[in-house]
Structure formats: structure tokens, C-alpha cells
Amino acid sequence: MADPKESEKGGVELSTPNAAPPTGTMSTRRLRSEDYNDYSSTDVTPEGSPPGGMNGFAHPESYQRFGETNGTTWYQTLIHLLKGNIGTGLLGLPLAVKNAGILLGPVSLLVMGIVAVHCMGILVKCAHHFCHRFQKQFLDYGGTVVYGLESTPSTWLRTHAIWGRRVVGLFLIVTQLGFCCVYFVFLADNLKQVVSAANGTTNDCTPNRTVVMTPTMDSRLYMLSLLPFVVLLTFIQNLKVLSVFSMLANVAMFISLIMIYQYIVRDIPDPSKLPLAAAWKTYPLFFGTAIFSFEGIGVVLPLENKMKNPRQFPVILYVGMTVVTILYISLSVLGYLRFGADIQASITLNLPNCWLYQAVKLLFSFGIFFTYAVQFYVPAEIIIPPLVARVSERWGWVVNLLLRVALVSVTCVLAILIPRLDLVISLVGSISSSALALIFPPLLEIATYYTEGIHPLVVAKDIAISLFGFVGFVVGTYEALVELIAPATTVVNGTSVMVQ
């Protein structure tokens, strides 16, 4: 059986060539070796080479990965797992619960959290299976899918197995660039609100205080104003430098979350008027936002492969995702209880317009701004190097910068075309996150173990999860597009002015 890497030669690759990185920049080997071209990580991780040790999900006694001893500890892995799952989607979950209902929403979040973690476990188990079978040190998401397709009894799937890597890479690109679009809308909406309320901002943070909003330019113009600064930020290609910005962003967002929590737990009104279950027409929008928030499956294999003792990873995965799920459910329920029908697409926009909470909005915006560069690094490293390789070395750096400008501009234009944060999150979640997190892993398990014998109940379970993800993909995308093309006559808690 051909190695997935070797079988790609001669075709269009979605992964970055294994050339040595330029002097002064850090290779993508932070999470992977030269043969591990998984760009699914959405954050910068600690230094180190592939760890030694045994795997934890399947066949722990069967094979061993050899490497340097400076892999990540269980604590570092847990922190990076949390960072890879907590982002802007968290702030949109209160509106998502409104779209599902005060009872149906948190129950659905819990179920989706359990299913998402189960799919992460499936991915790791299948990767371990093929590592043991073909004596590989480790595999990325795309490589695991390639081996899975080559293991099926279908001749057509085996012949076209390389497309498994390309499809996974495509969805990773769509997901990461979708995150970047969300960041543009988030930054513009929060900055617009801060500027509009600037003249009336005081130290009085009482919730009933009314602030007269000063007319300001449209949020789309804020996005255009941010574009040059974001472009300059993405010119930073050194991961060591980006790691500093990533750390600052994480600190800023952590402080902001603490301030948000301490505000929403106070003065919660009577929840009896809130519907237990919302209209089914809005539930697909909940699905898109929820699965967008749980899209952390891309960081699982890189983090597990990076540990000093990978046998600890199963416990870390379940503990970390339990914390994430509790955080999601608590903020979404408390946020909806606190603001009710007035909840907006980002809970930061519901905070009082006093100096303290204006600072919280700016602090979170500061974190999101620098997180853009980290998220953009993933698609940039997949798309740009193969194109730069087609030109002479003399013009390589010019083409590199021009492509970065073009990609950032594309995310800005898409954000301008869809200036509602709730719809952008729902679209990205429904289109790409559902495929990576719910549709592919169960099908991969069937493909991996079908010829070796797999229980019919496992097959039925995997088909049910994939169908659930596919239905959410279709219906969630459809409802988001319908709301975008023909919005309701009233503003549905969008964060931008809707053009009727």
C-alpha cells in the first residue's frame, strides 16, 4: 500500500511541501514532524519534537513513537486543548440557546458535546490503528482518511483515496478562513458600539441606564478601516513572534470572560416567560453556532502526538472537553436568562456602555485581533507555498505578500457581504465544522474496520451520527442562506444594521 504522502506526488497538494523553513521562522513541526503535514491546529503550541511514549486509545502495547523528550506535559496539553476549543463561538451561544429554547438549547449542547468528543476519540483510534498497522510514528487527519479509504473493499474508493486528504484540507481552509470572517464582523460590531457610545460613557454601570448612541459610520466601513492593520499583522510569518501575540490574546480574553460572568450572574430576571423550546425553523441556526463552537477536532491529533506521555491523552481529552462543555452551557444559559429576548449575536454587545465594560469589549477585541493572525497561519501555509514555488526566488517574497493581501481581502469582502455575526458563525459551522467534526469521523471508523469485522450496532451508530451531521449541514446552511437573502421584517438580534 502506498504511503499517503508519496501517492500525492504529481498532483495538486493541499499540504505544505516539506522544505526546510526560512531562517528566522519556525517550522510547522511545532506540532508535527516533517512527515506530519496537518495544519488543522488552530493555535500556536509549545516547542518540542514528536514525543516518545505509548498511545492511549487503541493498541497501547503494539507500537511506540520515538522522539526527543521535550514534548508537552499533560498540563500544557490540557491548556492548548482548551484554547483550541474556546473562541468567538462561545460569545454567540446565548443567542444560539434563544434559537433552540431555554431547555432544548442546553440539552442539545450537552448531546452535541458528547457526540463531538466521541468523534474526536474515533479519529484518534483510527490514527492509532493505521500507525500500528503500517508502523508509522503518527498520522494527521488527512493521512488517516487516506489510509481509511485505501482499506475499504471498494476499488473506486481505493483508487481515489488521495482525495480524502484534499477534501479534509479543503474543509480546513474553509473553516479557518471562516473564522477570519467572523473576526472581522466581531471587531467591527464591537468597535462601532464603543465609538457610538463614547460621548455618553460614564462610570455608571447600572443596567437600566440609557446611553444616547452617537451616529457613526456603518460597520462595513469599520471592516474596511481594519483591513490595512490586519494585512500588516498577517505579514508576520514567524511563529515565535505569533506565539507572543497568542499569549497576550489569551490573557485578554480570559480576563474579559471573568468580567462577563460576574455581570451576567447578577440580577437575573424571572425566566418563566422564556420558551422551553423555540420554533423549529430557528433550530438549524442553533446547530450551526453550536457545532462552530465545538470545532476543535483539528487540534486533537497534533496535541496527542506532541505529548511526552500520550497514554495520558484520553483522560486529558475527556477532562478538557468536559470543562469546555460546562463553560459553553453555563455562559449560554446565564446569558440568555440575563438578557432574554434582547440577547445579541455576541454577548459583549449586551454589556452596559460604561467605562468598565467598554474596556471589556476593547480587551476582547484586542485578543480577537491578534488571534486572526494565528488562525490565518493555517490556510496561508496550505495555499501560499505551492504557489510561491511556481515563481522565481527573486519574486517569491513579493508573491507571498500579495497572496496574503489577497486572502485577507477575501475574508474582509465576505464579512462585508454577510455583516451579521450570527449568520456568519452559523454558515461556517454548518458548512465546514459539521463535516470535520461529525460527518467524516464516523465514516472513517466504518472504512477502517469494515474489512476486519465491525459490529452492526457500531455501523448503525456511525451512520446515525454522520446523517445527523449531514442533515445539520444541509438544513443549517439553507436556513442561514434564507435568512441572509430574505431576512425577517424585524431585526433578529443581528449585530449590524439589516438592509431590508
Short description:
A two-stranded antiparallel ribbon has the order 1-2. 63% of the residues lie in helices and 1% in strands.
What does this structure look like?
This protein has a two-stranded antiparallel ribbon. It contains 16 helices and 2 strands. Helix 8 (219-234) runs antiparallel to helix 14 (393-417). 49% of the residues are buried. It has 500 residues and is mainly α. It has helices at 4-7, 74-85, 88-100, 104-134, 141-150, 155-159, 162-196, 219-234, 239-264, 283-293, 300-306, 313-339, 355-388, 393-417, 421-449, 456-485; strands at 53-54, 64-65. It is 63% helix and 1% strand.
Quaternary: single chain
H-E string: HEEHHHHHHHHHHHHHHH
Q: What summary fits the major beta sheet?
A: 2 strands, antiparallel
How helix-rich are the residues, as a percent range? 55-70%
Strand order in the sheet with the most strands: 1-2
Rounded radius of gyration (Å): 23 Å
* End-to-end gap: 57 Å
* Overall mean pLDDT: 79
* Overall strand count: 2
Form type: globular
Keywords:
500 residues; mainly alpha; two-stranded antiparallel sheet; 16 helices; 2 strands; disordered N terminus; disordered C terminus
What topology does this entry show?
Elements: H1 4-7, E1 53-54, E2 64-65, H2 74-85, H3 88-100, H4 104-134, H5 141-150, H6 155-159, H7 162-196, H8 219-234, H9 239-264, H10 283-293, H11 300-306, H12 313-339, H13 355-388, H14 393-417, H15 421-449, H16 456-485
Antiparallel strand pairs: 1-2
Helix pairs in contact: 2-12, 3-4, 3-10, 3-12, 4-5, 4-12, 4-15, 5-7, 5-15, 7-8, 7-13, 7-14, 7-15, 8-14, 9-13, 10-15, 10-16, 13-14, 15-16
